[in-house]
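Methods — Computational structure assignment.
A single polypeptide chain was analysed. Its primary sequence is given first, followed by the predicted tertiary structure written as structure tokens.
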Amino acid sequence: MRVLLINPNSNPETTARMVAIAEGAAPGCVVIGMTAASGPRRIVDEAGLATGAASVAEMARSVRSAFDGAIVSAFGDPGLETASAILSFPVCGIGAASFAEAADGGRRFAVATTTPGLVAAIAGRVASAGLSARFLGTRVTPGDPVATMADPARLDSLVASEFGRARADGAEAVIFGGGPLAEAARRLADSVEVALIEPIPAALRLIMR
């Protein structure tokens, strides 16, 4: 199976990390990454989502090879609908895929993320998926998101705290709100008492189905 991973951020190192996460989640699957040529290196607000959406459309128009599916690998799913209209194979966003997986079986769910500027956009995407009744909101780690992401120990501590808040509020599943956060999810998986949803593997499972 060949899957195209479209990174709306202009950071090739992040693309490489997300490709590795995807291939690790589906051994035998070949994942080809594409990186936005311009725009923010990490999308942290709605302006970044808008720029990312334009980049996703540009990348989709440039695709010349056939794939079994494509993943828009930014949590706000920028440009997802446009890419779906352009490409001739299935396209899913890591946000939409993780919402569906978290809500499976009627579970109530929350999101934990490092980016306060995306809280409203996340709620909007959940509403678009028809899952607002099961959504308990987004928990955001304090401090600068770039600095938090650069310090794995601090990231783990802050995110684990937000997991605890979400569980106390009744969440049965918590989504890591961001493609590159999968490493933290795996480090914390055995230490929290709630189902953890990793967006990139969730998107791969959806594409494979």
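Note: The chain has a mean pLDDT of 91.
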